[in-house]
Amino acid sequence: MSGGPVRVLVGFGRALRARGIAVGAGDVETFCAAMVPLDPTDLDDLYWAGRTTLVTRRDDLAVYDEVFRAYFLGEDTAGPPRPRPRTAVAAGVLEVPAVDPPPSAADPGDETRLGLVASDAEALRHRSFAACTPDELRALRRIMAQMRLTPPRRRTRRTQRATRGRVPDLRRTVRDSLRLHGEPVPLRRKRRRVKPRPLVLILDVSGSMADYSRALLQFAHSARHSARRVEVFCFGTRLTRITVALQRRSPDEALARAAALVVDWEGGTRIGASIEEFVRGRGRRGGCRGAVVVICSDGLDRGDPDTLATAMERLTRQCHRVVWMNPHRGDDPGYRPLTTGMMVAQPHVDLLLSGHDLSSLAELAVLLPELG
Amino acid sequence: MDRPSGVADLVATLRGGGYLADRGLATAVFVALSLDRPLLLEGEPGVGKTEIAKVLAAVLGRRLIRLQCYEGIDTAQALYEWDHARQLLQVRALAEGGETSVKALFGPEFLLERPLLAAVRAGGRAVLLVDEIDRADDEFEAFLLELLSDFQITVPEVGTIAAASPPLVVLTSNRTRELHDALKRRCLYHWIDYPDVEREVEIVLLRQPGVDAALARTVVGAVHRLRELDLAKPPGVAETVDWARTLSFLGEPALTVDAADLTLGSVLKEREDLELARENLDEITSGA
After folding, report:
1. Which of A75, A123, A211, A218 could be a cystine partner for A69, CB 3.0 to 4.6 Å?
2. Which InterPro entries does the annotation name (chain A) (predicted)?
């Protein structure tokens, strides 16, 4: 194929790219090559060959269809613009305090400033996020970034060599022995490898959690960067996956991106429905198998308590451990769940923490490795 | 059959092998065969991702080599392993006979072939099915990517083994985790949807010729209504076939509420789903 048709196909690739589908030059080349044994004038061939060579995820299929119709059939797909209140509203709502650039060693004012932060840290440890000023939240954020979350570890099927242990590594022993023409060698040993469990954070960003959701989101961002396999979801009335958005190193950029994804900031709460959505989607496909799931919510559910109970029961069967952080629990050790949601969910929770201030988040970091 | 001449030809050939492929899947397979590219199939459980590889091997007259992935799979289970027991025996035998060389101990005859090595050796005469790749860990995925790019394996003691022509590679994934972009880039991608009513009826009749056509139609209708319910595990095509077969075996002429109630266990395998379906049985079987 050459000339005109190739130009048409390349143009199609460009149209897809313009709509946000990652189409590389190599993919377009494959598309052209695929059309050689097919009929370039047959729309079916064009459609399917393009779909199989240019699209790599199911979520992109709808956009592909749209672009295909517009590009090859000249259909006007503009129509009524899809409602996207997300960005406009969310950006206004989520006023994440900006972080100062990390002080460089050359700056003379550094020592004092560092000292300030350190003493702030002590004062801030037990201040509820709800009572923090934007400045204090900013300071908290720097401390959170230092926090390391270590999910519990589990044994894998893979083994590694060990200097001592009960399990002999026959394969290695024989292999070493063969190097010496079958001379016996000391018995080699092996042990099972260990690997950190995946961590899933599910954050409530509804109205009743407004005082805490910013801090928790910051926490999620630093968690996302401190452990390897972390998934983060937000919910108010519906569930949104923000793992990819939080991937950005810069917290401001990451949180802004996450905020743009979430449509239901500070609205109502449907915990049951949101957990159920998680269980049915990701959970059913095995997305939280062997994982530690941390839910941050006050348990103020406007939905049906039965939905929450069923969803929580399913969740406990799909994952390894469930941790619930309820900021409204505060420091009160004699806390009794007052909201229906909390009462319904509590029997299925392995560990209940508060998560209303920095020290309680630190508590999670300490307790997490012991949930194995 | 060596290579299909076109998409229509491939559809007909697959049908001969007992697989009803739609235009999209057939095009994807045809392109994979023409360009020698691996094909990554995703879709809900039970839509025939694994089956297509098996049928392809049968109708193309190729050997099916299957690699079932699981967490912790490593190269010893996927690629090759030395047969240490035989090597030891050889050492003994040679020691008694006299001259022996280490080189002779690491010859090809002591190499235990695992699926990937077998596929490289068989080359174009094989269909390599890498099943449920999403279950393997990302290290294995990276290793697989390397293998899929040039179809050669280096065994330090033996040398490099390369495929004369690459095998047809079919990878399946249930999307339990996101696959690496590099692997997806290397592959052609196709999402298999549930078939529409007409096609699913055809599939049932093709797989279970003993089933009455009218019964098949009502069963498929009921399954489609089940999929619209908010089920934890929506039934796949395999379940539809099972259900039709069960009803036919029990001698039920049609899908009544009672018959459906008794046999619901062949389509739904979760307690909550069964309860939900039983509440709506009238509606589900209403097409019958």
Report:
1. A75
2. UCP010256 (IPR011195), Uncharacterised_CoxE (IPR008912), VWF_A (IPR002035), vWFA_dom_sf (IPR036465)
